[in-house]
Amino acid sequence: MTALPLIDCTIAQNEKLLLKLMTSKDSSLFADLYCSERVMTYISHPVERRKISNSFNKAIAFNSDSFIKRCFIVIFSKFFGCDVGITGYTVFESEKEVEVGVMLLENFQSKNFAFETLSLLISLVIERYPDYCVVANLDHRNAPALNLVQRLGFDCIVDGKFALDNQKFLNAMINFD
To answer: Mean per-residue pLDDT for 59-74?
Structure first.
């Protein structure tokens, strides 16, 4: 993983992916994800198209905060030459936790993008918040997501909430390469 300065909005990259801070240019991608019933199945109700602009503006405001507590990040595939989804994290200071997540456009699901994206994001989060626990919250019916967090080294701590075991994560990264 190579961490780059936020000047060009690039947050991290590897041979396959570029993670970049979401900007006002990404409204179409945001709408395609958050308005999709299929993408939102295990997350929440899809946002109505007429209300998406307000949701997007709130997300951009989070990214504009000088001390980012919530960060929305666009996933760019170098192979396909296009944006494939959004990932991000939310910092919960009182719990000393950082929640991570990923959403992919339907055409890019089940192609290992989620694993590669979260590998990059988790590495970045561990570097930025070394004393915090990395967590993921999932719907127990979402079998692909459950498999993903297991592959990444998360352990279930309560129904639907998973905490990263850093050693298991490091082992997953070694075995993945």
So the answer is: 82
